[in-house]
Amino acid sequence: MSDPVPVIPGDPDTARDATHSAGAVAPDGELEAAIRAGAPKALATLVRRYGVFDQCEDAVQEALLAASAQWREQGVPVQPVGWLISVASRRLMDGWRRDNARRQRELTDFLRTPVVAETEDTDDTLRLLILCCHPTLSAASQIALTLRSVGGLTTAEVAAALLVPESTVAQRISRAKRLIKEAGARFELPTGDEYDERLRAVLHVLYLIFNEGHTASSGQDLQRLDLAAEALRITRMLHQSVASDRDPADAPPAQRHPAAPTGEVAGLLALMVLTHARRDARTGPGGDLVPADRQDRTRWYTSEIAEGTTLIEATLQSGRVGPYQLEAAIAAVHSEADSVESTDWEQIAGLYRILAEIDPGPMVRLGQAVAVAMTDGPDAGIAIVDALADDRHLGDHHRRLSVLAHLHELAGRYDDARAQYEAALDRTRNTAEQNYLRDRLTHLPPESPT
Q: Which residues belong to any copy of the RNA polymerase sigma factor 70 region 4 type domain (predicted)?
C-alpha cells in the first residue's frame, strides 16, 4: 500500500489529498530515524533519475525540511522514502518550470510516471556513497558531502560534527557539488579495478569520520559519539549494499582483488563495532579519559563484541585479508581479554607484523610499538617510536609523544617520560586528553638517583 500524496506547504494540489496513514504525532527519535534513513535513498533515486546532483540535493533538502514539519504533526508515513521522493521531485520540477521551459518534456514524462511505488525497495546508497567520494574532491569535501547527502545531516549538523564553522561546511559542499558537475560524474557503479579503487576511497572516508568520533581532535569531549554512530550506521548500510550488489564469490576471477574491498567493508564494520563497544568505559565522571589498563571492562557491550568478532571471523575465512580486517582482528583479541595483563600480546604483535607489511603507515607502526613493548620490553617499543621521529605527519604529533612517554614510564625513566608527557600536552587540542596527560605528570614518581 502506498502513501497518499504528501502535503507540500503552499501546494494546493497536494493539500486536498493530505492524509497520513500513521495519523499520530511522531516522537523526535522516530522522526529523526526516518529522515536519516530516507534521505540518502531519496537523493540516490533522484540522481539516478535526473542526473543533476546539485539540483537533486537541494530538492531533497527542501523535502527534508517539509518532512520535519509535517511528520512531526501527522506522523511518519508508511513509505517515507516515497514521500520524500515525491516532494523533492515536485520541488525539482517546480524549479525547472520556473527556470527553463525546455524541461517541459521531462516534466510531462515525470507527471505521467508513478513516483512512489518503486522507491521503497530500491536502495542506491552504494552508488550515492561512491559519487560523494569522487576522486576530484578533497578528503574534507568528501567527508562533508557524505555526512550531508548519505548521513542526512543538515549543514549545521555537519558543521557541529566536524567542529568547523557552518559557512565552511556550506562552502565545501557547494564546491564539491560544482566539481562533481564539472567532472561529469555519472550515477553508476564502475567496474573492475576502478570499482575497487573507488570503494577504498569510500572506506577511507568512513574510517576518518569514525576516528574523529572515537577520539575528537579538539574540543571538550574525548568522544563524539554522534559522529562515531553515524559512521557506523553508514558503514552498516554500505555493508548491506555491497553484499546485495556484488558477491565477491560470484565475481569473475579477473575482477577479484587479492584484498577484495568487499571483504574490507566487513572488516571496517567489524573494527567499528568492536571499537565502539568500549565507548562507555573510555570516560569517567566528568568525561575524563580512562586508559585501557584502567577501564572497567564489564562496561563494554558484550553483544556488540560478539557481533564484531563473528563478523571478522567470517570475513577472515573468505580470502586474502586487508588492513581493516587485520585491525579488526587486533581489536577482537583485545576484546576477549579480561585485562591488559591477560591480553594475548604475542598474537597482537604477530598481527601487527602482518599489518605493517601490507600497510606500513606511521600509525600502524605506533600501534606495533606498544605490542612489541609488551612482548619484548619497553626499550624494543621505544626503538620503533624513535624511528618515527622524522615522520612528517606523526613525528611531532601528540600521539607519538604520548606513547613514547608511556614506554619510558614503563622502563622506569621518569625524567624522560615527564619530558615527553609535557611535549604531548603542549600539542593536543582535546581537553580530555590534556587532563589525562596532566594526571600522568602529577603521578609520575621522581627519577631514582643513579
A: 128-178
Cβ neighbors of 448 (< 8 A, separation 6 or more) are 412, 414
Q: How does 64-85 read in b/e, with b if 16+ C-beta sit within 10 Å?
A: bebbeebbeebbbbebbbbbbb
Distance between CA atoms of residues 276 and 214, nearest Å: 8
Number of folded domains that form the chain: 3
Q: Determine contact, residues 87/13, Cβ cutoff 8 Å.
A: no
User: Can you tell me the distance from the alpha carbon of 115 to that of 129, in angstroms, rounded to the nearest whole number?
Assistant: 23
The helix/strand/coil state of 430 is strand
What pLDDT is attached to residue 129? 84
Q: Could you give the CA distance from residue 80 to residue 37 in angstroms, rounded to a whole number?
A: 9
Q: Is residue 275 domain-shared with residue 325, that is, in the same domain?
A: yes
As separate numbers, helices (DSSP H) first and strands (DSSP E) second, the chain gives 20, 2
- Residue 450 burial by CB count (10 A; 0-12/13-18/19+): exposed, middle or buried? exposed
C-beta of residue 30 within 8 angstroms of C-beta of residue 71: no
Please enumerate in sequence order all residues whose Cβ is within 8 A of that of 194, keeping only pairs 6 or more positions apart, or say none. none
Q: Which residues on adjacent β-strands are paired with residue 429? A: 218
Query: How far apart are the C-alpha atoms of 314 and 309, rounded to whole Å?
Result: 9
Segments forming the whole domain that contains residue 396: 372-449
Stretch 160-182: mean pLDDT: 83
What one-letter code names the amino acid at 156? A
Which of 20-34, 199-213, 317-331, 416-430 is the least confident region?
Answer: 20-34
CA distance linking residue 296 with residue 37, whole number of Å? 34
